């Protein structure tokens, strides 16, 4: 299947909460004082029909990472699926300062809505507030703004939930093998990011329920090279290991390379995000990688669909409320050999 075909499947089938986006109809009669969505039949989706034109400004870091590349690809493909959407993409530059400047220029162009995946949510918080004050709703994607007045909608993956999912899988597997005092390694991504800290917190919490803890932790930087360097150091520090959680499947390419180079296979590994390469490796069953926990870039497709609804003043299908919610967090699911075929179409 071509990359474009995978993207179309991804944005078409996994736009969480935005698939059949209808304006909710409510019933609140004296006989039945309940707010109920009555538009539950098989009627055609009125929101799918072309409506008021929406100009969506979009900014995300440079696509030097598979997950980020998928974010941008999904956003562009989802926008192209709507005849009433114009996507204006601006370069985010190499750091937060460059992205601030790019967004300031975008604000001056007065788009209907802005969708932004910031280099760092805290550092871009002020520009989110600036856009909102200018009357431009902001969709904050993935890396959270700390201030609620900096965004109209925040849509992100469940970073803490990723850690919970990874820790639960590892704990259950070790318990099933009757390993009472396991040696567990961890390779996170960029440690200064709040999302990385949340993943680690969730992982530690889940392990604690089994009476386990991390023996050694070596941060990487979401790249294959940094993953290989971190894994090499971790493997040297732990001559024996029972389980390993690597937070990111892109840096996992380097992690697996280091493991192969060290000729180590006494442990199993869990990945993070759900890349196509990771899902394929899990299906093949020929490496230490036995599972990965999802953090899907399909959130960008959903962000574009929801930005369109916000720009047109519409609500969501299965909700009674007339507006798109303020926050949406996507669930983190565990992919194993048993269900890998089901998730293959969502790999990036």
Explain what you see.
This protein folds into two domains: about 5-155 and about 295-330, 3-Layer(aba) Sandwich (Rossmann fold); about 160-295, Rossmann fold (3-Layer(aba) Sandwich), CATH 3.40.50.2300. The longest helix has 18 residues, at about 160-175. It contains eleven helices and 14 strands. The chain is elongated, with a radius of gyration of 21 Å. Helix 7 packs across helix 8 (about 250-260). The chain has about 350 residues and is α/β, with parallel strands linked by helices. The chain has a six-stranded parallel beta sheet, sandwiched between helices. The chain has a six-stranded mixed beta sheet with strand order 9-8-10-11-12-14, sandwiched between helices. Strands 1-2 form a two-stranded antiparallel sheet.
